[in-house]
Design a protein that fits this description.
This protein has helices spanning 3-11, 28-31, 37-42. With 73 residues, it is mainly alpha-helical. The radius of gyration is 20 Å and the shape is elongated. The relative contact order is 0.06.
Length: 73
């Protein structure tokens, strides 16, 4: 978005709020406790053999943890 378009947008009376869409980075050390992953891991669950579908336009398909595991896009 150009600067001109941005200012036009925030001056538009139909627009209540404008939020900056900044990058967000997840961290397993912070999120694991939120979903009780430590309990699952201590019970022996590892996720081995489980397939996951991620619908996200921001996936880094070249990341070393994902590059050999992506089946389709």
């Amino acid at each position: 978005m150009t600067e001109e378009a941005f200012f036009k947008l925030i001056r538009d009376e139909r627009v209540e709020k404008v939020y900056y869409n900044r990058p967000v980075y997840g961290s397993l050390s912070k999120s694991a406790s939120l979903i009780n992953a430590n309990d699952a891991w201590s019970s022996g669950y590892t996720g081995d053999g489980i397939k996951v579908c991620v619908i996200d336009s921001g996936v880094d398909t070249d990341h070393s943890d994902l590059s050999a595991r992506i089946v389709d896009e």
